[in-house]
């Protein structure tokens, strides 16, 4: 049985005082909480470091583990830190060191590690006896000038040495590397940022030091676009960034970078960048579990192909019937391919935890740097004045050299000599000791001049130091110049891209406007390619290689537009879908692109019949549609402005009829229809000839045909233009619009090209002018680009001239025009 008898009280120290348990618990817990908050879990606003990180860096610096020296075992900085400054476990200290060395944890690592420091997954670092470490050059900027009394020091835990309360931190570490920690009753979670952007905000704050808080905040947010994570990836939307910067708290949505790849009929989602702090091993396991449980559908396999050579690469293989875009959206919703960073800008300010806005963090950093500059300048001024004081004594001694030598020779001891020098030269004890310590060689005339010159130089330095201390604008200029040097050495490009979210700024604000060639194949593969990848050629050239197609696939639609244009997809079933040009996958000339089923929600058995582009739905008052059987319908263009992802009805088709053409027009235009056998008809598009109809109507007869003939193209006539027709054999011609008389709607029209079996069937007919540029594409994917005016003018009943040289067995399958000014030709005929 335990003895609970209290020992007798022999003295004052043995006195036991009864206390209220509740009050004692409250007081002790508050003391503990403040110790954790201030001394362990939260970063200091001035250097952005927690105590363990600060002690690690200072211990490594003090022990000489610097970037200009060789690596040392990681156990050494851990031991230095634990033995001198941080009385905690070596495991906790080593974990802190490992994180400072991991490039996926730190935007700008402060420890240069060598060996196995773990991975982004579940692989831990090797033991500290195996790995090696030293400070990075950027960490030296954190410690620069620490020996010049730039920061306060305090006794360490056992009082045997001193440690800094804060580092000089010549870089804005709190913002560029961020921080995270859980204290008692509070937590911090600061995202990392780009050094160049943060430096721009600091420069603005230095130049506009008297600006009010709102102006400073707006300027800082203009300079700093958002967090810049070491793992890159995407930030979706800017509202969370705005909240974090203006209130200190915000939820920032992060998203992986995923490419949709197709190879031999298999579609894969390739993840190349993950959000910050997402563990790829756990991500793969989570996705696999959800696939097995049936929560995620359409996925057949997932594997990690990441390596040091290729970087991050997680490959998700889809089932053949899966739609990539649908699967990807489900992955964003149910996995960490998309997650949020809960920003909480909490740090220690003057010993107290405070939630800060962006501008406040910048201001505190600037104030700290100015304080460092002032303290360093005072230190250097004091050292310079001490040296100048000694030099003045030496000059006095050299001016009375004979008397000084005689006095020293007759002095019995050093104290007598010192006293005599003080009386003789009117100097103090410090100067007298310096004279007595002076070497004989410095008595020469040359050495005397060196002392005089050094004194003059130091007096200039003293004046400069005093000027710095008297002028705050010079202090700010020094901070700016020194930070600029650091940025020039270590600044880099932003890694994390910020994209728009629903209800946020539009995609057009983030995507460059440029012309692209849009290519869509018969089987539905679409892509966009920069126009400069197709060089300009003269008529008769053989072209450059275009899309690499399967033998059973051909290019069906081919045109030039802006990345910001709407692309309207009209299907054989009379429906219309839309997408922005930039939503099409970008690919080179030889790539097939991506199937439109991954972009558009087509109904079963729907195929693309016609594609047109427009900038807005106000580009024209009407949209004209034409079917293979010659029906024509005119409807208001605004009637087709719909956000429905499932498309809308464009025309009501009769029987087996199909949609062939779609054009923008006005009531003042003329329409020109061309048939497969070379017939053409021109008629007015006014409301009397062609009255406007609703979307779900069938239209009226625009052209009638002879046997085995159907409609090839629908065109809108413009004055001063030509009808350019091309055949499958590579022949083409231009015919002026005056050769095509206006007729009544519904006739068979007039001949537009004389049929010649050797020259092939008619494959295209379009309107061009002298400034148009023509593209023609062959059955094997070859493309020629030439000015339309280089195609010979000819009458309606002629056969045309050679447009491009083609190999045997190859045919021309499509032509398209670019209405922009053609580029200067640079290829030979």
From TrEMBL:
Presence of the UniProt keyword Transmembrane in the record: no
GO molecular function: ATP binding; DNA binding; DNA negative supercoiling activity
Gene3D superfamilies documented for this protein: 3.30.1360.40, DNA gyrase/topoisomerase IV, subunit A, C-terminal, Topoisomerase II, domain 5, Topoisomerase, domain 3
Catalytic activity entry: ATP-dependent breakage, passage and rejoining of double-stranded DNA
EC number: 5.6.2.2
Keyword Mitochondrion: no
GO biological process, one term: DNA topological change
Key words of the record: ATP-binding, Cytoplasm, DNA-binding, Isomerase, Nucleotide-binding, Topoisomerase
Top-rank EC class of the record's enzyme: isomerase
Family assignment from sequence similarity: Belongs to the type II topoisomerase GyrA/ParC subunit family.
Biological function: A type II topoisomerase that negatively supercoils closed circular double-stranded (ds) DNA in an ATP-dependent manner to modulate DNA topology and maintain chromosomes in an underwound state. Negative supercoiling favors strand separation, and DNA replication, transcription, recombination and repair, all of which involve strand separation. Also able to catalyze the interconversion of other topological isomers of dsDNA rings, including catenanes and knotted rings. Type II topoisomerases break and join 2 DNA strands simultaneously in an ATP-dependent manner.
Name of the protein: DNA gyrase subunit A
């Amino acid at each position: 049985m335990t003895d609970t008898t209290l020992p007798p009280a022999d003295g004052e120290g043995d006195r036991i005082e009864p206390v209220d348990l509740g009050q004692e618990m409250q007081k002790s817990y508050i003391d503990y909480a403040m110790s954790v908050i201030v001394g362990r879990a939260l970063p200091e606003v001035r250097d952005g470091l927690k105590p363990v990180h600060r002690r690690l860096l200072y211990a490594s610096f003090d022990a000489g583990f610097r970037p200009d020296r060789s690596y040392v075992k990681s156990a050494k900085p851990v031991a230095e830190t634990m033995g001198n400054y941080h009385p905690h476990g070596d495991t906790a200290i080593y974990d802190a060191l490992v994180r400072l060395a991991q490039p996926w944890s730190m935007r700008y690592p402060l420890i240069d590690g060598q060996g196995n420091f773990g991975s982004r997954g579940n692989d831990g670092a090797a033991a500290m006896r195996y790995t090696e470490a030293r400070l990075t050059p950027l960490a030296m900027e954190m410690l620069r000038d620490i020996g010049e009394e730039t920061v306060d020091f305090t006794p360490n835990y056992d009082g045997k040495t001193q440690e800094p309360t804060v580092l000089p931190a010549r870089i804005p570490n709190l913002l560029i590397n961020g921080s995270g920690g859980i204290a008692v009753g509070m937590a911090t979670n600061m995202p990392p940022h780009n050094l160049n952007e943060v430096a721009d905000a600091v420069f603005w704050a230095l130049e506009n030091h008297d600006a009010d808080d709102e102006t400073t905040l707006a300027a800082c947010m203009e300079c700093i676009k958002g967090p810049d994570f070491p793992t890159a990836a995407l930030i979706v939307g800017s509202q969370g960034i705005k909240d974090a910067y203006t209130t200190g708290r915000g939820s920032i949505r992060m998203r992986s970078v995923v490419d949709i790849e197709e190879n031999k009929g298999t579609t894969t989602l390739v993840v190349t960048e993950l959000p910050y702090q997402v563990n790829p091993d756990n991500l793969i396991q989570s996705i696999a579990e959800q696939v097995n449980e049936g929560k995620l559908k359409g996925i057949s396999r997932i594997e990690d192909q990441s390596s040091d050579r290729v970087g991050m690469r997680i490959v998700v293989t889809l089932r053949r019937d899966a739609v990539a875009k649908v699967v990807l959206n489900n992955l964003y919703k149910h996995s960490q391919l998309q997650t949020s960073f809960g920003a909480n800008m909490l740090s220690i300010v003057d010993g107290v935890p405070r939630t800060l806005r962006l501008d406040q963090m910048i201001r505190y950093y600037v104030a700290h740097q100015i304080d460092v500059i002032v303290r360093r300048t005072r230190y250097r001024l004091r050292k310079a004045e001490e040296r100048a004081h000694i030099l003045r004594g030496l000059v006095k001694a050299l001016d009375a050299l004979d008397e000084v030598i005689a006095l020293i020779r007759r002095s019995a001891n050093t104290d007598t000599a010192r006293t005599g020098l003080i009386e003789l030269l009117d100097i103090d004890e410090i100067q007298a000791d310096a004279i007595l310590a002076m070497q004989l060689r410095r008595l020469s005339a040359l050495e005397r001049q060196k002392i005089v010159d050094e004194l003059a130089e130091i007096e200039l330095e003293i004046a400069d130091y005093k000027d710095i201390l008297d002028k705050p604008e010079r202090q700010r200029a020094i901070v700016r110049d020194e930070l600029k040097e650091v940025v020039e050495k270590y600044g880099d490009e932003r890694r994390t891209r910020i994209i728009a979210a629903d209800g946020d700024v539009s995609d057009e604000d983030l995507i460059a406007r440029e012309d692209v060639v849009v290519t869509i194949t018969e089987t539905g593969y679409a892509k966009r390619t920069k126009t400069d990848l197709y060089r300009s050629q003269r008529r008769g050239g053989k072209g450059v290689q275009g899309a690499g197609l399967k033998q059973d696939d051909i290019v069906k639609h081919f045109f030039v537009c802006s990345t910001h244009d709407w692309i309207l997809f009209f299907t054989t079933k009379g429906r219309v879908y839309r997408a922005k040009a930039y939503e099409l996958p970008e690919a080179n000339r030889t790539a097939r692109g991506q199937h439109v089923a991954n972009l558009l929600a087509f109904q079963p058995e729907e195929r693309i019949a016609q594609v047109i582009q427009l900038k807005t739905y106000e580009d024209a008052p009407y949209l004209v549609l034409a079917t293979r059987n010659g029906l024509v319908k005119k409807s208001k263009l605004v009637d087709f402005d719909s956000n429905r992802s499932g498309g809308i009805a464009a025309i009501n088709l009769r029987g087996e009829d199909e949609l062939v053409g779609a054009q923008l027009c006005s009531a003042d235009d003329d329409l020109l229809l061309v048939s497969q056998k070379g017939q053409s008809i021109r008629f007015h598009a006014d409301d009397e000839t062609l009255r406007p109809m609703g979307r779900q109507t069938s239209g009226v007869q625009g052209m009638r045909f002879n046997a085995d003939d159907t409609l090839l193209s629908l065109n809108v006539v413009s004055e001063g233009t030509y009808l350019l027709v091309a055949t499958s054999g590579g022949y083409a011609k231009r015919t002026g619009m005056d050769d095509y008389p206006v007729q009544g709607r519904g006739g068979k029209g007039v001949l537009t090209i004389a049929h010649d079996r050797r020259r092939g069937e008619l494959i295209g007919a379009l309107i061009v002018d002298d400034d148009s540029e023509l593209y023609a594409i062959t059955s094997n994917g070859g493309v020629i680009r030439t000015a339309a005016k280089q195609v010979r003018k000819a009458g309606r009943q002629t056969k045309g001239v050679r447009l491009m040289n083609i190999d045997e067995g190859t045919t021309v399958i499509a032509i398209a025009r670019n209405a922009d000014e053609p580029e200067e030709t640079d290829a030979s005929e």
